[in-house]
Amino acid sequence: MKKERFGLIGYPIAHSLSPALFKAGYHGRFPYELIETADFEEAYSRFLHVYDGINVTAPFKEQAFAKADLVSEECRLIRATNLLVKTPDGVKAYNSDYLGVRKWLEETIGAGSGKDKSVLIAGCGGAGKAAAIAAASLGMKVVLMNRNTAKAEAMAESIAGMENAPAAEVQPLSSFRGYFRRCDIVIYNIPTSIPALYELTEDDFRGMPGRSVKHVLEANYKDPSFGSGLLLKAKEANPDFSYTEGKVWLLYQALTGYEIFTSEKPDFASMSVVL
Fold this sequence. Notes:
Layout: E1 6-10, H1 18-26, E2 32-36, H2 40-50, E3 53-56, H3 61-67, E4 70-71, H4 73-78, E5 83-87, E6 90-94, H5 96-109, E7 118-122, H6 126-137, E8 141-145, H7 149-160, E9 169-170, H8 176-182, E10 185-188, H9 202-206, E11 215-218, H10 228-237, E12 242-244, H11 246-262, H12 268-274
Parallel strand pairs: 1-2, 1-3, 4-6, 7-8, 7-10, 8-9, 10-11, 11-12
Antiparallel strand pairs: 3-5, 5-6
Helix pairs in contact: 1-11, 1-12, 5-6, 5-11
């Protein structure tokens, strides 16, 4: 019987933690390799000829989505994929960025508790789109901010097409502080720090009266914008404040995505040690 084989396409990816996470999750039972090339067509051809499933990272998520024969519902809305799997009916696209952040949201706010919560999505790139769709799927009120407002507006239109999702609100980045204060959850997907982060006051970290618990999830795990000084200020202002680093999102998207690959739950404890 042929041994299943998996990998990651993107460029550059030499720094990726995915091989170590996959090896830990299945204790080395399945091969997982980096397919590093700047040429998407070359990478995709290697997938078709050699691999059973691949993860997809920047800059290939939208190109990979366009290649898929079948797409999951979240991929249809996000119009990007980070996971392709061969099936008897063709190549199917999933988005485990969405699955990972949805899992984090359910654990953070409690399953079924989304309808009275609001979330600020700062940055509407690939990770931001996935986070926005995940929050909307839980019935949360989504506020979208992006340097390019057109991207945020396009995301709001996608959310408008979802069943039972409240209409999303689009606001300029200049309103970041005000919405940071009033939203229950902030998902920060901007790859660099914005000046408004360092203008946050104690009242901003405390939030609105009666809604003082504040959760922040950051996508960037290599060079996070929420440094130790900012987090200390947040905790001093609000003991209930919680911050989740991007490595946790990476872990959750790996946990949910790898199970799609193999139909087996990976070893979460072993994967956690890698991070």
